[in-house]
Amino acid sequence: MFSSLLPKPKHTTYDDSLRITLKTSSSKQVLVPNQINTVSKRETAIQSSYQDTIPLKVKYPNLKHHFPRTYDESTVQDTKATIDNLIQKLNGNDPNADNDKTSFVNYNPSSSSDSRVIQIKNYKEDPMLPPKFKLRKNRHKDPSPPPPILKNDSNLPKLTKEDRAKWNIPSAISNWKNNLGYTIDLNKRVMAANGGMDPSEASPDFNLEKFGELSSALENADKQARDEIKLRNELLKEQALQNQAEKEQLLKNLAEKTRSKRSFNPSHSSNKKSRY
Q1: Are 259 and 215 members of one domain?
Q2: Which residues contact 121 (CB under 8 A, 6 or more apart)?
Q3: Is the pTM value of this prediction over 0.90?
Q4: What average pLDDT score do residues 76-90 get?
Q5: Which of 142, 223, 232, 274 has its CA 20 to 30 A from that of 239?
């Protein structure tokens, strides 16, 4: 047996005079009294019909409201007073603050009979002082890692060798840089040039046999260039030795000429000795 009736309140007085007994009609419908607000002490509106749930603007579209409104002059004065108060606070002239208020207290110590007058003032804090409290950032912890995604591999087909070869990605090979001097096979270069395809699957315009001819031609050209450089250096060396021999021979001839001149003029040599 279920009932919607609540028990009597424990911590408040229960007044039987406020209890309402609703009447029922012949069709077993509950009849709500029209003036139910007069029974209760509180001013509550009970919506007992559908018409009570319709908003007033929908129910009475031409209804004029007379809400209490403030006058413009009083609003302007209140706003001006509030703004002036804020400006005075920013300038340091707070009318409500008692910074300059001083008080005098007569102090009589117990140890001595002399009384003292103490002046009490509010402490003015220096605005240039550093902050007393350190603002710490709210360091959030790293979020937890995402949960692993578990999949059932029992129903998946097994990977074949052909499929694995298709997914194989060849290493990147540069045709311009080889800093470590690795020897790279031609097959790998061909695969890198064809985007990972086998040489057999390459286009027919690509001839693999020409690589050998190209490498041999480059070797022959390199060898021929080295031989030419060697011959040129030998010729330059022989020419330099010949020029040096000619200069030495010229110096020898000049020395012999000067000796012969001195031997034909003995008076010149005697005068030179007498001077020293």
Answers
A1: yes
A2: 101, 102
A3: no
A4: 89
A5: 223
